Amino acid sequence: MRFTIVTLFQGYFAGALESGILGRAREAGLVTVDFVDLRVFGEGRHRVTDDYPFGGGAGMVMKPGPVVSAIEVARAASPGCRVVLLTPQGRLFRQPVARELASAGREGPGGLVLVCGRYEGFDERIRPYCDDELSIGDFVLMGGEAAALVVIEAVARLLPGVLGAEASSEEETLSEGLLEYPQYTRPRSFRGAAVPEVLLGGHHADVAAWRRRQALVRTARRRPDLLDAAPLSDDDRRWARRAAADEA
Ligand code: ADE
Question: 30 and 83 in one domain?
Fold first, then answer.
């Protein structure tokens, strides 16, 4: 899948794109990342990309000319792409959105164009040139770059072959709308804390049942909001809430 990042700060991404699973996925050709340098489209001798807000107020605003020109260049280079503006005003980026972007990116050759701004915001007239707006959470970053990396990480790991044989992206946290069950590895006893007996016995059905219950209780205790949206039976829901209440 192809990602194109529109940014003033290409250097920001260097380490992240080379490291670990993402680095391997790029080497294997499963993921490509291209950049469009916003500075090139800056105006005047100083290649300015931001300006004071009309009407006054704190902070600077990304100018429409440079951003829209950069988007047009990205679109021309990736026909069929989806252009996403990263902004705290966007729809919330959650696992179902990552899944949606991964399947769109797999099918369409153009992939995803991620537009990162700095400063206080984008001139409103930039919005019609984008297909979507995403926020990675209800907080304000210094710019969209960290958000673009979050999107790339979450989407890339859902692409076939990226995680390799050792892991299935489907059988884990949030894939069924639940938090993950508790995990353990060696040693069997760590500073007096033992691994739950059921995990040592090799009874796959028992292990699966224990994990399911743990995931339900953990979600009910930590993120009851997820429980409401998860595909569960009414019994599951009642059981999880009661178990979580008993434990509290
Ligand atoms: N840019 C600044 N804050 C952001 C956020 N929370 N999500 C996406 N882009 C952003």
Answer: yes
Q: Whose CA is nearest to atom 10 of ligand 1?
A: 87
Task: Answer whether 3's CB lies under 8 Å from 152's CB.
Answer: yes
Same domain flag for 119 and 13: yes
From the CA of 134, give the closest atom in ligand 1. 8
CATH of the domain at 236: 1.10.1270.20
Q: CATH number for the domain including 60? A: 3.40.1280.10
Residue 169 pLDDT grade (very low, low, confident, very high; cuts 50, 70, 90):
low
Residues 122, 210 within the same domain: no
Cα of 146 to ligand 1 centre, how many Å?
8
Q: What is the pLDDT of residues 26-46, one digit of tens each?
A: 999 999 999 999 999 999 999
Give the Cα separation of 68 and 214 in Å (integer).
Answer: 49
Cβ of 31 less than 6 Å from ligand 1: no
Report the domain count for the chain.
Answer: 2
Q: At what angle do helices 204-222 and 234-247 cross, to 10 degrees?
A: 70
Residue type, 72: E
Which of 61, 85, 136 to mutate to test ligand 1, by most ligand atoms within 8 A of the CB atom? Answer: 136
